[in-house]
Design a protein that fits this description.
288 residues; alpha/beta; Rossmann fold; seven-stranded mixed sheet; 14 strands; 34% helix; acetate-CoA ligase (ADP-forming) activity; NAD(P)-bd_dom_sf; ligase; succinate-CoA ligase (ADP-forming) activity
Length: 288
């Protein structure tokens, strides 16, 4: 397992909103260690067993061992919430989508200065089966196992995890880096953690068109990763100049195409599946 373990103690920022309250209940139901929530002006209230505070600082005064946050704050206010969490915590997961790119750049820069891990924005989060989740993913498709998944796409993550589970295997940790052009953790950050993790024997990397994250990951894999990596790139048939789903998934010129990403990964020794349904077979062959 990586990032999320038995020592993770989390605060939910925006816990009393519609999304925040729903997913707090879901995370608690999965035994995630949610110890507090924030909602300015609603300090003193409770959400089930969770105490609500006006700020992260106020929550930390009563719960000094809080070390992680998950953010369900609307995009215009997400930067302030992220800065508040980054200044005091080790892990910050930003579920919010449509955060302006400039705001995200400032968030990522501030996180580097504070040595804080940022997952997202625009991410389904992170789940360690059997331990907990900081995110919005449906838990019934995950199973404890030895395959690490890192992905730019939420729904494809679920499809691949479900196929791995249905094949009688499971996941060590599954992490969505987010679909925006600028994100906190990138593929290389997560792959290195899987490489160093005794509980991960193989990795699945799910990419998509747009940007150069996958090409950068390929260079990193060729130099640093010894465990088997299986990749899948979504958007093979996407026409140039057309945005596909995520804000980050747009092809400009020759860079960012599925073809260029697949070529880079194959050159790095990664097996690239042509369909999500092939991934399980490739993993099984790699782990024989």
């Amino acid at each position: 397992m990586i990032i999320l373990d038995e020592n993770t103690r989390c605060i939910v920022q925006g816990a009393t909103g519609k999304q925040g309250s729903f997913h707090t209940e879901q995370m608690l139901a999965y035994n995630t260690n949610i110890v507090a929530g924030t909602s300015p002006g609603k300090g003193g209230q409770k959400l089930g067993p969770v105490n609500i505070y006006n700020s992260v600082e106020e929550a930390k005064e009563e719960n000094p061992d809080i070390n992680a946050s998950i953010i369900f704050i609307p995009a215009p206010f997400a930067k302030d919430a992220a800065f508040e969490a980054i200044s005091q915590l080790d892990i910050v997961t930003i579920i919010t989508e449509h955060i302006p790119v400039h705001d995200t750049m400032e968030i990522v820069e501030y996180a580097k200065k504070n040595d804080t891990i940022v997952i997202g924005p625009n991410t389904p989060g992170v789940i360690t089966p059997g331990v907990g989740k900081l995110g919005i993913m449906p838990t019934h498709i995950f199973n404890k196992g030895n395959v690490g998944i890192v992905s730019r796409s939420g729904t494809l993550t679920y499809e691949v995890a479900n196929q791995i589970t249905n094949a009688g295997m499971g996941q060590s940790t599954c992490l969505g880096i987010g679909g925006d052009p600028v994100v906190g953790m990138d593929f290389a950050d997560v792959l290195q953690r899987f490489e160093d993790d005794d509980g991960t024997d193989a990795m699945v990397m799910i990419g998509e068109i747009g940007g150069n994250a996958e090409e950068n990951a390929a260079k990193f894999i060729s130099k640093n990763i010894s465990k088997p990596v299986v990749a899948y790139i979504a958007g093979v048939t996407a026409p140039p100049g057309k945005r596909m789903g995520h804000a980050g998934a747009i092809i400009e010129g020759e860079s960012g195409t599925a073809k260029s990403k697949i070529a880079a990964l194959e050159e790095a020794g990664v097996t690239v599946a042509s369909a999500p349904s092939e991934i399980v077979k490739v993993i099984k062959d790699a782990l024989k």
